[in-house]
Amino acid sequence: LDITEQRLAEEALRASQTRFAVAFNTSPIVLTITRVADGRLVEVNDSFTRLSGYSREEAVGKTPLELGLWLEEEQYHQGLQALLSGRTPREVEARFRLKDGSVRTGLLSASLLDIAGQAHILSALTDITERKRAEERLRQQAALIDRSYEPILAWHPRDGIAEWNRGCEALYGFSKAEALRRRSHDLLQTVHPVPVEEILRQLEREGVWSGELHHTTKDGRTVIVESRQQLLEV
Q1: Over 70: is that where the pLDDT of 14 sits?
Q2: Which residue among 149, 166, 168, 223 sits deepest, i.e. has the most Cβ atoms within 10 Å of its Cβ?
Q3: How far is it, in rounded angstroms, from Cα 32 to Cα 124?
Q4: 226 CB contacts (<8 Å, ≥6 apart)?
């Protein structure tokens, strides 16, 4: 009975190890296992090799610092000390240098695990480089829009005005605080050449609409504007 139980336990362990290996190697997230004693990589998954440019043979046995992966080495040492002191880093933003010299930004999480009686670090990295670039482009665009003296606003049929730049403030007299989240056609008492519903349908079909609109300013004046509206995906 003892032998049978031992065999079952060994089989369960092998099955568990197999499942872990499959999940590790096929994960879309970059995964690495590093030995704490000497800081050397003992395993990397396919996502690591695709992103970093290093083959498994080039990476295993080296430290991340020897490979030059960490752009800020001090951040690496701080993260290691946090782990060893019992803290578990979760989604820490860090920058990494790939084999070709390019730099990527990722969210890094790490935890300690025991392998054959030795302490190791399991690291998981999600590449957010494109998201960061998109956020920076949006930030730059928002800054340009805000500084522009040409009236530019962004609005949503349900949520109202989302952007209101200084050009709008100068033309209509409403401050940004007064305009945000208000429905633009209510705020400006807009007179459309066609119903709003028809404009929305054209925007959905073609992505753009242009035409003449009559607006009422904060002080009651009527202004006639040539409006160009463009559908944005955000």
Answers
A1: no
A2: 168
A3: 7
A4: 210, 211, 212
